[in-house]
Amino acid sequence: MLDLVVAYNRYRFLGDEFLTWLWYTIENDPSVLKSADPDCQSLEVGNRIVFENRKTKSVERITIKGDEAGLEEGRLALRKGALVSEIALIFKTGEYNWQFSVKGESLNVSNLKTPGPSLPQSPEQMDDFILEKTGQVDKILQFLEKIFSSFIRSRVSSKWTSKIVPSIKKWIVSIEAP
């Protein structure tokens, strides 16, 4: 059995590859998102994205944040070999929006803002409120689990090196530099 620290260091790149693939998928193949959750109308990059380039001796980290921030610098970072290490996302279904961030190294979900009702006015409504909020949190976690499973199936398939990576590289190169 692998030591936990050894396994963490050996496979931590998978989370960053997943988030980079997810950004590519959001922009180029949203049908994958719909297959993970039929209610998903869209998944969008939110107001923060972090890139890390570990190909040099020192880790280079680029953070882009802001509601109107362009992602041109991030796309340039991809060209230079960086991967997405953290991303804010907006998940939309019908009239509801969820906002959250995912960190690549651990796939932790943070800053989750769920849709729905405000705090209940009476203690009798608290159970229903908690059940509804728990269901909303679970919806995002189930969605991410299915998307990650789709990524892993692609990652271990023969299509990864023959079709998917070349498509991602083509997408990166096709983006104009700032």
Question: Can you tell me about this structure?
Answer:
The chain has 178 residues and is α+β, with helices and mostly antiparallel strands. The protein has one domain (4-172). It is 47% helix and 24% strand. The protein is built from 6 helices and 5 strands, in the order αααββαβββαα. It has helices spanning 4-11, 13-28, 31-36, 72-79, 126-155, 159-174; strands at residues 42-53, 60-65, 83-93, 96-103, 109-113. It has a 5-stranded antiparallel β-sheet. The longest helix has 30 residues, at 126-155. The N and C termini lie far apart (47 Å). The model has no long low-confidence stretch (mean pLDDT 89).
Give a quick precis of the structure.
With 178 residues, this protein is of the alpha+beta class. It contains 6 helices and 5 strands.
User: Roughly how much helix do the residues carry, as a percent range?
Assistant: 40-55%
Beta-strand content estimate: 15-25%
Kindly name the structural category. Answer: alpha+beta
Q: What kind of oligomer do you see?
A: single chain
| Radius of gyration from CA coordinates | 18 Å
Number of domains: 1
